[in-house]
Amino acid sequence: MIEEHRLRTLIHYEAPRRPDRPEEVTPREHHHVGGARYPAPRQLDAGEVSHLLNMLLEAYDGRRPVAQIRALVAPEVYAGLSGPQRARPRHRTQTIHTCTPAPEVVEACARVEADGRSFALAARFTRTPTGWRCERFALLKPQQPAKPIRRAA
């Protein structure tokens, strides 16, 4: 059975009109960039910081293409992550602590585990007109134990 569909024109339909004056918005709610209006990114919570750190660790480990996080990181961080790729163990965040030293800045530190060892992770995120961007990313690995000095007897 074939059903027949008919299109109806919407001649008598009136689209909702925008008010003549834009609503008043505070600078904290919106930023103007190049004449366009963007909603201000809200403050990062611990869950979002955790998600961003895991994405950065995936790029560091080689499990995520670095190009996917290009918009989320500063050029210096991108250059550090997009260097020569070598096989790395999977890093997993265990505990994350955040602080807000300034209204536009969130700093995070985390304990990260890989291959049964613990490492420290430090990151700094700054608010931009279009979102949050990682300005600093450092995975601090413990120093190799010094070789004992052999003394002649």
Topology, element by element:
Layout: E1 30-33, E2 36-39, H1 46-61, H2 75-81, E3 92-102, E4 105-114, E5 117-128, E6 131-140
Antiparallel strand pairs: 1-2, 3-4, 4-5, 5-6
Number of strands: 6
Distance between the termini: 102 Å
**Most strands sheet:** 4 strands, antiparallel
Nearest-integer average pLDDT: 78
Task: Give me the number of helical elements.
Answer: 2
Class by SSE composition: alpha+beta
Report the order of strands and helices.
EEHHEEEE
Please tell me what the overall shape is.
extended
Low-confidence stretches: none
β-strand percent reads 25-35%
Strand order of the largest sheet: 3-4-5-6
Helix content: 10-25%
Q: How much is the radius of gyration in Å?
A: 25 Å
Notes on the structure:
There is one protein chain. This protein has helices spanning 46-61, 75-81, and strands at 30-33, 36-39, 92-102, 105-114, 117-128, 131-140. The chain has 153 residues and is α+β, with helices and mostly antiparallel strands. The strands form two sheets. Strands 3-4-5-6 form a four-stranded antiparallel sheet. The mean pLDDT is 78.
Features:
153 residues; alpha+beta; extended; four-stranded antiparallel beta sheet; two-stranded antiparallel sheet
